[in-house]
């Protein structure tokens, strides 16, 4: 075997090994979700049978029917969707405006202010939750949609992500627009934002997922069941029916499926957003 064939064989073996590792990693990641889905399709008497059955026999949708009958899952689903959409829209507005200011507008102390703003990423949410709660109580927003949504519409990470994307846009477009008499607001709305669609889509996915999966803040701010989001409702579901794991797993599937569908739809934009928002000084 000559050297060329040996090199080709080594590359093929390396690629085969990589595929095997990726498939094994994918199986490890998907097994927990497969078990959750399997348990949600079982009747109560078959949930804890030994040996465990990954494929339910018989399979049925009784757990999903029961959970909608005995628990306000529909209302919680609406709350999660409403809060996540409102939070996402708020982050797109605030982060895009702040990112444009940091990326294009020149003012004294710009870089230092941006570094201070970025440093807030190192502050754990647990540290700020008490002052946030006190602020919401002063505003009278405890147990309201405003209290659920407004603290999440500001994001230092989202500002950083969009700033990096804006910096990758050539300034020649803006200079040409300035020569045609366009204002900074016109340039921002008609040039910067349309050219940053992948980064905006990436931020949308991150913001939506973060709000949808949020647990601690909704647990603190909401008292009434009618305002609970799915993660909080699922926690109370587990506490109410400790032995009916098929109901708990049905609620988990209902919570996870929208995120899975969102990722499948937006994965192309996620990759483009990461590429466009690469680190730039």
The backbone outline, from C-alpha atoms, is flat
CATH 4th-level superfamily of the largest domain: MetI-like
Largest sheet: none
Class based on secondary structure composition and strand pairing: mainly alpha
Gyration radius over CA? 24 Å
**C-alpha end-to-end distance:** 50 Å
In short:
The protein has 281 residues and is mainly alpha-helical. The chain has helices at 3-40, 62-70, 73-104, 110-119, 125-139, 145-149, 156-167, 171-179, 184-195, 197-213, 216-221, 230-240, 245-276.
Describe the protein in words:
This protein is an all-alpha fold and 281 residues long. It has 2 domains: 3-40; 72-276, MetI-like (MetI-like fold, Orthogonal Bundle), CATH 1.10.3720.10. Helix content is 74%, strand content 0%. It has 13 helices and no strands. The chain starts with a helix and ends in a 5-residue tail after the last helix. The model has no long low-confidence stretch (mean pLDDT 82).
